[in-house]
């Protein structure tokens, strides 16, 4: 029987019961059951987009208002419009645009949260991860796995901006966050630049090195030059109707994602390509590295050009249209959901 057709006396009696038991922190399941286990995923997040050309000046303004040192990390958070105040772009993930000016240092620290960077604008900055620096070049995908010390600096003469992706809401959900500062602002380099890539990222690993799939890779930079070369090398072969040519980044030692909580992807769509609609349970953040076009997310359409970011919430159908040869980077919580047996996709 629907609530509307119930006699007023019954409804009143129930409401009074709910109020009485509320004092004991009790609430009736039957009033919320449908919302708790919806037939298909419901997420609080909504589709949204950020045009870099429109927000770049505001990022630069932050650079005039506060130093990287004072801020610790000078970042403008990309907040999902439906999750304002939560530092979340999806229910599980965080995104932000970080600015570091010439001569600045973002001091060393480490935390349980895993982070990725996608370099968007400017040259001359570096990130150091557990004692090794890497020069940040546009399009490079760099990771700082959970509990690794990391600091950034800008040795060049122009502002550098990158996209940060972290599992902040995930770690907050589990109540599992720890953090500590480094002993010095900048880590002492204990290995030369390129060491990790040579040891772990060149189809070889040290002879006695073994990892399980839950362990992050020691490869902490995936240079865009290599990613781009792979995408272009396969460009003349048939493209997937839902993805174009799409790769997932892996820990080369295990084949699992580079970090256990965040998966990352790169894809190329040839000019004129229109993908078939696709949805999956991992809400996904996209950043355009080259080209441009439109993303239809559910019934909304977002235009994108280089350095633009858009977010596709869980189970929202995505159709991409490339107006030029296009390269997109994306990240999501897919490996986390897969580890828990929750991940689903639908090729529509
Ligand atoms: C962090 O450590 C960085 O290291 C960036 O650059 C953004 C957001 C929340 C918590 C830690 C970084 C962050 C962060």
Secondary structure layout:
Layout lengths: L7 H15 L10 H4 L11 E3 L1 H14 L2 H4 L3 E3 L16 E7 L4 E7 L3 E7 L3 E5 L2 E4 L5 E4 L5 E5 L5 E7 L1 H7 L4 E3 L13 H6 L20 E2 L1 H10 L11 E4 L14 E7 L8 E3 L3 E7 L2 E5 L2 E5 L4 E4 L5 E5 L3 E7 L1 H6 L5 E3 L1
Antiparallel strand pairs: 1-19, 2-3, 3-10, 4-9, 4-11, 5-8, 5-10, 6-7, 6-9, 8-12, 13-14, 14-21, 15-22, 16-19, 16-21, 17-18, 17-20
What does this protein look like?
Helices cover 19% and strands 31% of the residues. The protein has 8 helices and 22 strands. The strands form 5 sheets. Strands 1-19-16-21-14-13 form a 6-stranded antiparallel β-sheet. A hairpin with a 2-residue loop joins strand 17 and strand 18. It binds 1-hydroxynaphthalene-2-carboxylic acid. The site of 1-hydroxynaphthalene-2-carboxylic acid (1HN) has 13 residues, from strand 3, strand 4, strand 9 and strand 10.
Bound molecules: 1-hydroxynaphthalene-2-carboxylic acid
Portion in beta strands: 25-35%
Q: Tell me, what is the CATH class?
A: Mainly Beta
Shape: globular
**What is the CATH topology assignment?**
Jelly Rolls
- Number of domains as seen in the coordinates: 1
Could you give the order of strands across the largest sheet? 1-19-16-21-14-13
Helix content: 10-25%
Q: Report Rg.
A: 23 Å
Q: pLDDT average, as an integer? A: 97
Alpha-carbon distance between the termini? 36 Å
**Major beta-sheet overview:** 6 strands, antiparallel
Q: What structural category arises from helix and sheet content?
A: alpha+beta
Low-confidence stretches: none
Query: For this structure, what is the CATH homologous superfamily?
Result: Jelly Rolls
CATH architecture grouping? Sandwich
Please count the beta strands (DSSP E, at least 2 residues each): 22
List the secondary-structure elements in sequence, H or E. Answer: HHEHHEEEEEEEEEHEHEHEEEEEEEEEHE
What's the helix count? 8
């Amino acid at each position: 029987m629907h609530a509307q057709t119930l006699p007023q006396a019954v409804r009143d009696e129930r409401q009074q019961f709910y109020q009485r038991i509320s004092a004991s922190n009790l609430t009736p399941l039957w009033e919320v059951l449908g919302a708790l286990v919806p037939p298909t995923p419901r997420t609080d997040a909504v589709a949204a987009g950020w045009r870099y050309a429109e927000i770049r000046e505001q990022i630069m303004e932050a650079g005039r208002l506060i130093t990287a040192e004072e801020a610790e990390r000078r970042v403008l958070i990309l907040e999902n419009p439906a999750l304002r105040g939560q530092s979340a772009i999806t229910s599980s993930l965080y995104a932000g645009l970080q600015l570091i000016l010439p001569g600045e240092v973002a001091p060393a620290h480490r935390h349980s949260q895993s982070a990725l960077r996608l370099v968007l604008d400017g040259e001359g900055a570096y990130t150091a991860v557990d004692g090794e620096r890497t020069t940040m070049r546009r399009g490079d995908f760099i990771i700082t796995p959970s509990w690794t010390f990391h600091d950034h600096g800008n040795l060049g003469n122009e502002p550098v901006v990158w996209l940060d992706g972290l599992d902040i809401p995930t770690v907050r959900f589990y109540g599992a966050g720890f953090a500590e500062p480094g002993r010095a602002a900048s880590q002492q380099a204990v290995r030369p630049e390129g060491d990790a890539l040579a040891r772990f990222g060149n189809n070889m690993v040290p002879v006695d090195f073994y990892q399980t799939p839950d362990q992050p890779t020691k490869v902490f930079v995936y240079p865009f030059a290599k990613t781009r070369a792979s995408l272009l090398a396969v460009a003349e072969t048939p493209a997937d109707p839902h993805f174009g040519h799409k790769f997932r980044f892996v820990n080369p030692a295990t084949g699992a994602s580079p970090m256990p909580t965040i998966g990352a992807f790169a894809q190329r769509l040839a000019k004129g390509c229109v993908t078939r609609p696709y949805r999956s349970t991992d809400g996904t953040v996209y950043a355009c590295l080259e080209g441009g076009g439109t993303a239809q997310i559910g019934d909304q359409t977002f235009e994108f050009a280089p350095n633009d970011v858009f977010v596709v919430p869980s189970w929202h159908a995505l159709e991409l249209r490339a107006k030029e040869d296009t390269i997109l980077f994306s990240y999501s919580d897919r490996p986390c959901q897969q580890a828990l047996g929750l991940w689903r996709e639908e090729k529509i």
